[in-house]
Structure formats: C-alpha cells, structure tokens
Amino acid sequence: MSAETVVVVVHYGEVETTARCLEGLTGQGADLSVILSSNGSPEEARALSDRAAALWSPDAVRLVAGGDDPAQDMGSFSVTVVDNGGNPGFAAGCNVGIREALKRPATRYVWLLNNDARPAPGALQALVREAGGHPRALLGATVLDAESGDRLQLAGGAEYHPATTRIRPQHAGAALQDVPDLSQPRLDYVYGASLFAPATLYREVGLLDEAFFLFYEELDLCRRARAAGYGLRWCRECVVVHEVSATVGRKGRGTARQARLAAFHEARSTILFTRKHHPLLLPMALAARTAGKPAALLARGEWGLVGPSLAGLVEGLWAKR
C-alpha cells in the first residue's frame, strides 16, 4: 500500500491504550498507513499486531523485528508493527517510523501521534486541508482532555519560557464549542501528542534527537524547524482526545515506577534542552528546577518523585551530547 500520510505511533504501556489509538485511525480514510513502533515486550507487539489485523485485515498487517539496519525493507502495509526489542526511548521509537516513512516515495506527510491519543473522525482530513494552505508548517491539534470530554488540554501546543522552564499550554481549559472563536496562538512548540508535518521537514532538519529519551524531543524539533523557516500552527478542526499521561504514569495514572521514570526524564531532558539551546540560561534554569520543582511536587503530595527529579537534573548536567 502506498499512502500520502504515514502515521507513526510509539507503543509503551498498556496494550488497550494503544488499541484505542488504532481504533481511532480506522476512521481517518484510506490514504494513510500506520507504523506502530513497539517499545514494549515481544508479546505486546504480537498482541497489537493481532488487534490491528482485526481492525484492518490480516493481509494488511505485518509484524517485523526492528534492528540497526536502516535499509531493512518493511514493505508498504496498511499497518506495520515493529518490535524494537525493548525501550530505546520515545524519540528513538519515533525515528524508527520516520525513517521508514521517508523511504516510501508516496509519503507527503508524517503524523506523530501518541499511543494515548485518539483522533476524532475527520482529524486527518482537517490536517491535510490545513497543510495545503501552509505547506511549510508543523501542525498541532485541538487536544481534548479525555477526563473532561469537552475541555481543551491545549490548542496546538504551548509557549516555553527557558529561564524558568515553565510551559504555558495555549487556550488550556477552553470549551470545545468555543474553538471557532479562539485566536491562532503563539507557539514555541507543537505538542507531540499530535504533530503533523511534511516529510520534507525531516529531510531538511533531521530526525528527532535521541538524546531526549523522553520529553522535549518535540520542542527541540520545533526549534530546529523554525530555524529552517518552518512555521508552527494550530489546526483547530483536527480534534484529538488525549488520555493525559496514560503512558508515562503521571497525574495518578500508570505505575509508581512509570511515574518515577517520567519525573527523572522530564528533569533530565529539561537540562539537556537548556544546555543545547540556552546555555547562558543554565544557572537560572537549574535554580528554578532545584527549588521550584521539588516544592511543587511536595505541595501535590508526590513525595516519591522528588528524588528522581533531582537525580534527573544531575544526569542532565553530566550526560554527553
């Protein structure tokens, strides 16, 4: 199958979470293919292949083993499930799919979609329409919080303040019914739960930086994209329902181990990003993180995350780039 849009989904966590994402993709039209990059166990990859076969057809789904050979031919199936043999990180998992998408001559767009996100009917069509008017833009979605149902988690993406490392999601909390009247927001990055871009972007600026094991990979990509002349836009008609942090275990979801892992990598990636893009602000960012983040965690009663967060800061300082 040759498709104009290749959707890249990284699996990690519960199989049922990823299966709901796949179900949402079945209603997006025929001109797409899915590369499901599995950072879980081999058993999870096989289970997801079976679920995809039930949603599409057995002949439309292929399960392959990932590897270090970039020339490996995965074929052009409706759904290709890649067993990565472990968890190399979110950015690395995405890159498995992006590399395969770029090998296919028909690929015009690559849609990075979180496995805990489910696109509403018509989401892909809305993205393609928006991309037609803005061919050099990365597009974000109207992301709804699954718990509220009709309230925005954000519109397209967020602002990022490097000195304080604070993130300000745009139009957060707005009602879905008010979306047509909301302004096009200023974006420092497109939210990685749904990031739609022309394939040419990755050919021009490169893939995701795998130094970011988890978090900040989309902020880094958007920074590089803007430097190359790409814009960042909110596609308001593309609606995606997001089970906030269902995969990484934050906000009371997932296991305690997942939550500690997320706290560690969020802190680590914060420092790595600051070192890469704002080295002069590193002392301010460190001060904000060393004092502010533990205080916020303690105020929320998340005592067990203080240690991993501080450890992540130290690792981010010493990690090689």
From TrEMBL:
Q: Which residues form the Glycosyltransferase 2-like domain?
A: 7-145
Superkingdom of this protein's organism? Bacteria
Which UniProt keywords are given for this protein, alphabetically ordered? Glycosyltransferase, Transferase
Recorded GO molecular functions are: transferase activity
Query: Which SUPFAM superfamilies does this chain map to?
Result: Nucleotide-diphospho-sugar transferases
Say if the entry is tagged with keyword Transferase: yes
Transit peptide keyword on record = no
Please state which protein family the record places this protein in: Belongs to the glycosyltransferase 2 family.
**Under what name is this protein listed?**
Glycosyl transferase
Instruction: Report the source organism.
Output: Pseudodesulfovibrio portus
